Automatic annotation (TrEMBL):
SMART domains the UniProt entry points to: VWA
SUPFAM superfamilies hit by this protein: vWA-like
GO cellular component: extracellular region
Keyword hit for Metal-binding: no
Record localization: Secreted
Pfam families per record: VWA
Domain (VWFA) ranges: 27-204, 236-418
Signal peptide: 1-19
Protein name from the UniProt record: Cartilage matrix protein
PROSITE patterns (UniProt xref): VWFA
Keyword Glycoprotein: yes
């Protein structure tokens, strides 16, 4: 009996006698560094067993509430190991991982990220529209081109892929942090040597599965899990996005839109009644419709639509934007608004309104119509004014950051408040 067979038998036994696996609809792709610095002994002795142990923590299978696993390797070029729909049972996936070859070469991480985004998660490759998408990058060195690597990682995130970065030994922690989703404590891991990979096994599984939100027992296997993204409530959300001159085109494109995408990625957006729908308008001197609540019931298309929003500029007329959101996007007879859904406005701004009295009056009118108002203020935003606009309690509806560098730290908290998990 060879070593691979013994490992498979061991994993099978452990799977039966230890805790129940994570039950979750998730598509997981591993991007595995096989460059020269890894070395064959580390690849076979530590890296592949680490991946196998991780996969053993999931309920792998073809059904909705099960995980699918794919893998690619990379050095000078990325190489497909197997697609998400190639192996739909855990034993088959574990064998496929054991058969992944070591190649050697340089560390072109950017090419691996691009390959994963373009070739691993689509429906033609076994990806599922309703499953969470997770990309786990394992590397022991700095990429050949850090700028290109970070750019490709951001494109993955914009597509709705959660990027986890695991570094060993000489891996660049700064690059790992830039690659991974926010917050780094959840999405970025670093160990000094391959032997230490086992020390992050449980934490990584918890982070990808979300232990506080997951089902872990067979008795509840047929019920829907409350994992991130999570809702359980019908909510119609309209984002009211400041595009005034004080924001500027660069900040609007590089900070505001990615922030909005991060928030949306944590929401349970979908076509069903107990899911969320999202609309958006931008405002400067005048408000302009971006898309209505019923324009996108598929999260991937919604995230893609956000990336295509163009900056216009203008003054900061928040009052007309709130009136437009209330009457034209959340009004009772407006197309796409659902009876029984909680109407919500989320205001994103970096300044004070042109007419405070009119702005407060419009916010009060919206709240009287049953609309819940949240606000995110950055930099020079008037916190006193914003506190007069949002719903009560203020501390649950108003979020402020000193500057745009701190903007992303708000996204998870805001998503949680909107989801009310």
């Amino acid at each position: 009996m060879n070593t691979v067979t013994l490992l498979l038998l061991l994993f099978t036994v452990l799977d039966k006698i230890t805790a129940q696996p994570c039950i979750k609809s998730v598509d997981i792709v591993f991007a595995i560094d096989v460059s020269y610095s890894i070395q064959y002994s580390n690849f076979q002795g530590y890296l592949l067993p680490f991946i196998q142990n991780f996969v053993s923590g999931y309920d792998v299978g073809p059904n909705f509430l099960q995980a699918r696993v794919g893998a690619l390797t990379f050095s000078d070029e990325p190489h497909l190991a197997f697609l998400l729909d190639a192996h739909l049972g855990k034993p088959e996936v574990l064998r496929a991982i054991a058969d992944i070859p070591y190649q050697g070469g340089e560390t072109y991480t950017s090419k691996a990220l691009k390959f994963a985004r373009e070739n691993m998660f689509g429906p033609e490759h076994g990806g599922r529209a309703d499953a969470e998408q997770v990309l786990i990058v394992l590397t022991d060195g700095r990429s050949y081109n850090t700028t290109s690597t970070v750019q490709e990682a951001n494109l993955c995130k914009q597509q709705g892929i959660a990027v986890f970065a695991i570094g060993v030994g000489n891996a660049d922690e700064g690059e790992l942090k830039a690659m991974a989703n926010f917050p780094a404590e959840k999405y970025m891991y670093y160990v000094t040597g391959f032997q230490a990979l086992a020390s992050i096994q449980s934490t990584l599984l918890d982070s990808t599965c979300g232990t506080s939100k997951q089902i872990y027992n067979d008795e509840n296997k047929d019920s829907l899990p409350c994992d991130l993204p999570c809702s359980g409530r019908a909510v119609d959300i309209v984002f009211v996005i400041d595009e005034s001159f004080s924001i500027g085109g660069d900040t609007f494109n590089s900070v505001m839109l990615p922030f909005l995408q991060q928030v949306v990625n944590h929401l349970d957006v979908g076509p069903y009644q107990q899911q969320m729908r999202v609309g958006a308008l931008a405002f400067g001197t005048f408000p302009r419709m971006l898309f209505r609540l019923n324009a996108f019931t598929d999260k991937r298309r919604l995230v893609s639509a956000i990336s295509k929003i163009r900056y216009v500029g203008g003054d900061s007329n928040i009052n007309t934007a709130l009136a437009f959101a209330k009457d034209q996007m959340l009004g009772r007879l407006v197309k796409g608004v659902r009876g029984g859904a909680t109407p919500v406005i989320v205001l994103l701004t970096d300044g004070k309104s042109e007419n405070r009295q009119a702005t407060v009056r419009q916010a009060e009118a919206a709240r009287q119509c049953g609309i819940e108002i949240f606000a995110v203020g950055v930099g020079e935003a008037d916190q006193d004014e914003l506190s007069c606009l949002v719903s009560q309690p203020i501390e649950d509806h108003l979020f402020c950051a000193n500057d745009f560098r701190d903007f992303n730290s708000i996204s998870t908290t805001l998503s949680s408040k909107l989801s009310n998990c």
